[in-house]
Protein 1
Amino acid sequence: MKVVLDTNVVLGALIKPNGLASLLVRALDRERLVNYTSEDALTELSLKVAILQEKGRLSPTWKKTLAHFIAASEIVSPLRRFEICRDADDDKWLEIAYEAKADFILTWDRDLLDMRRNDRTITLEGRTLKILTPAEFYHEVIKKRC
């Protein structure tokens, strides 16, 4: 499965080492579950990690979790640009997912979640994917496959 983890999900994993976001990051294995990201997304992540580190909000194991996330991710350079999200900064997640032909975007971001149809999907130029919260992904995908 191909997924795109939004920055807020990765940050959740860095803050709560026993939370669902951390479980999802640990499940990334570059074979059965592969995360896709971009240089732009990694820059955003590093800026936000620095802020949380300054505030002392990261878990004691955050460096190990972040290293695993990076090692288990494929970096893409999206060629197609979208301008469809009400928060233009969130278009990058759609671009990454489109480029990677991802199955899912995992996020808590309301701007992305509000874009999906009732079946939790969005279609980008003929490519359909689901935008799910980590809990929805866990219940709809992970639990059903175990």
Protein 2
Amino acid sequence: MTDRIPEQVKDAVLALPNLVKLLARLMADPAVPLRRKIVAGAAGAYVFAPIDLIPDFIPVLGQVDDLIVVALGLKHLIEGASEDVVRQHWDGPEDVLELVTNVIDWGAGLAPRALHGVFNRLSPEDGASGPNG
């Protein structure tokens, strides 16, 4: 198993351009609820905000909170799109998409339950107010 780790890391790094394209396409797709896009954008902006839950000058932990918030934002956006929409916008191999979503799920899983609740409250059931509401 340890001999596969470098291959998986390589696949994940090589998937970054496809992930960026996927995110841009999901943000532009009218089928993805607007609230999901706003929440994902806010999560991305959090990385550049001068105020953090854990200050960046604290080694390791200062960067981990950024990664967790970004993972939650990505997970929230991807879950707001149908599986068909995600696959339509993904340019890379299917198994790499699965790897990417597993990594995002893992990162989001590190977040405290309360933070998951914040994301869910910001985008209540999307269908209640239409596809962009």
Protein 3
Amino acid sequence: MPGLQQETSPRGPAIVALTHNLRGSTAVQFGLAAPALVLFVLGIFEVGRMLWTMNALHYSVEEAARCASINAASCGTASKVQAFAAARSGGSFAASVFTATAAGCGNKVTASYPMYLNIPFSSYAVTLTAQSCYPI
């Protein structure tokens, strides 16, 4: 417009050039996305570990219930069944995780294991349970 003068400063062109500069934008985008990506990957690992532990519990209670029904010599008492289940688990569970009872369906073995998930910035505890009953 005539009559209005535009103020110019020596820093004006440098600021305009800086706003059009895209160097470093990839690093900023990675810095924003990386924490979410790392938490997602660690969460996948923990869910996989939880599923493996659940599978180990199910396998050990099935084997212990079968042993209690078929092999009374090595799995005749509840403490022997618990020790057998702990040995067969592959997950280094304590024998106290397992309980053995004689139920209406046969020999019943149950397991209850508190599992702590190692997810950064939080602590979650999940109780995994498994049971099996094998006819006598």
